Amino acid sequence: MENLKDKKVVIIGGSSGIGLATAKLAVSKGSKVIIVSSNQSRLDKALQEIGNESVGYATDVTNEEQMKNLFEKIGSFDHLIFTAGENLILSNVEDTSLETARNYFNIRFWGAFTAVKYAAPCISAAGSIVLTSGIASNRPNKGWALGASICSAMEGFSRAMAIELAPIRVNIVSPGVIKTELWSNISESDREAMYTNIGNTLPVKRVGEATDIAKTFVYLLEQEYGTGQTLIIDGGTSLV
Ligand SMILES: NC(=O)c1ccc[n+]([C@@H]2O[C@H](COP(=O)([O-])OP(=O)(O)OC[C@H]3O[C@@H](n4cnc5c(N)ncnc54)[C@H](OP(=O)(O)O)[C@@H]3O)[C@@H](O)[C@H]2O)c1
After folding, report:
1. Ligand 1 surroundings by CB, under 6 angstroms
2. 61 has a pLDDT exceeding 80
3. Looking at the whole model, is its pTM more than 0.85?
4. Beta strand 230-233 with 169-175: parallel, antiparallel or unpaired?
5. DSSP per-residue codes, 161-207
6. Are strands 8-12 and 32-37 parallel, antiparallel or unpaired?
7. pLDDT in tens, 111-169
């Protein structure tokens, strides 16, 4: 497909993991990519990897004023991808303070909400938005109350936006476990053991790579008919 050539794609969370892999794939298809994250040095490193004429803007998704300024600077564009997120908080509800629980929504839910609010007026009518969920909404394990709640909220928000912002298409990707810096709060040996153990339980016999999910984001930009959909790419996690 040629339809990403010369399209302007904004990727919030583009400095690492799934967002960075998506930026590289979109550039390989001829898009002009703008990556956004909260950390300038991580952005600079990512821009070197992406190459081409990509640009980066340091913006904290939890700061409404910075987000408003970001989209004023960017102006009109074609597609928004939102993959910003932080390390997971896994704990049972009885052990979770309400302050921690409320704050955990700030990046992944309220950050995405703020991004959509200020980005939507800048997105072309033929353009689209792709947001991020996670398989915890369908298959939460013990201790996943917050992650499952955010993912479910994001899926509902995406469907609501598909109606409210039409004809702009709004879809959401729900990944299973993917090898990225999201898991960097676990020691390397425990992390590798976790990847192996989870991978062995899955029909595809491995956990995912960021590139597996990048293909999904790019597919949702390229296809021109689907909207309001949650695309689950989880190596079969939901089946086992
Ligand atoms: N990896 C998985 O197994 C998995 C599974 C299901 C769902 N997900 C979801 O997929 C999304 C992407 O995760 P990933 O695995 O690619 O993680 P990652 O490699 O840690 O990437 C997270 C991105 O978010 C940015 N970010 C964090 N806080 C920010 C803030 N306040 N403002 C702006 N940007 C911010 C980070 O950049 P800076 O640090 O430079 O700000 C980074 O670019 C997340 O929502 C995650 O929950 C991941």
Report:
1. 13, 15-19, 37-39, 42, 60-62, 83-86, 107-108, 132, 134, 175, 177-178, 180-182
2. yes
3. yes
4. parallel
5. HHHHTTTSEEEEEEE-SEESGGGTTS-HHHHHHHHHHHHHHSTTSS-
6. parallel
7. 999 999 999 999 999 999 999 999 999 999 999 999 999 999 999 999 999 999 999 99
